[in-house]
Amino acid sequence: MAFREYKIGARMFAFALGSSMIITLYFPSVDMASVQATEHALERQLAYGRIGGFSYEDPLLQGWGKPVTVTLDKDPVTGKPIEPTVAYVYPPGTPFPSGITHPRILGEGVKDLSVSVGRITEANESNGAVFVVREGEFQGQTVAYIENATATRGWQAQTTLAAVSDDARQYVGSGKIMFVREGCWWCHTLLPEQTQDWQYFGAPPMLGDFNGESPTAFGSDRKAPDLLHVASRNSSREWMKLHFFNPRLVQTHSIMPRYDYLWGEVDAEGNKIDYDRWRAEYNEYVEGKRVYPPEVPEPHPDSEARKLIDFIMFLK
What we know:
The chain is of the alpha+beta class. It has 2 domains: 39-170, no CATH class; 178-314, Orthogonal Bundle (Cytochrome Bc1 Complex, Chain D, domain 2). It contains 12 helices and 5 strands. It has helices at residues 2-34, 39-48, 98-101, 110-116, 149-152, 157-162, 172-181, 198-201, 230-233, 237-245, 275-286, 304-314, and strands at residues 68-74, 81-90, 129-138, 141-148, 169-170. A 5-stranded antiparallel β-sheet has the order 4-3-2-1-5. A hairpin with a 2-residue loop joins β3 and β4. The model has no long low-confidence stretch (mean pLDDT 91).
């Protein structure tokens, strides 16, 4: 009798647990998929790439398999001047984000225009593609949608990258990997609350702003400023460079750790970075033996520091 009651209790517990998991995990995913993606959501998923955490194409979180965000001022095919256009370049083999592979999650209107006008279903990962975010009309409503510029304008990934200088490139997707890997989300949130937060940190995001983004990296405990709109408050790359190399250069009592190791072995000129010498000179500055702190090296274009700064400057 006791054993039979035990089985009944175990089954009831399993049913309750399974039901709670459905409510907790499945129902919200249905709601998320039914929400209309905002322009912010489209820009983010195109800039970040397929996934921003552990994945088979980047198991060690090195920032591999990510798109390049570029700003175009001329047509990559004709070379004629165009209005400054932000494009998201996916070199051949770069995994597409969920909104491209599963357009249904973009929501009504956004999906329809992205497929019919933007022709995103014609994009091919093996060949690469270039995407831009456009606005169009759907049932009397203006909505943002994704355009596959490779199909609509003939912009090929490699040609587009060749048409822009390094200054016009941003490695936002790889930079988000640095943000996740280095644990920045433990102290910094990316989620202003609907309280007085908005007066300083900017407007709270909407549900549709996260459509297609994985992971969201909302944050853990806020021990430092929210960063969702940080580039709108501080757009200085020079300040960000100093801050990441040694936060005490710009905020004397900062508890943030140094991220100078993200600079790697060499600076932007290819010169070897002497960390021991830099830290010795910095200590002399702190002790009052130097008037100015030592110069912070410019990050190499391929450095992890450059990518992390690109990600932070993308947060507007």
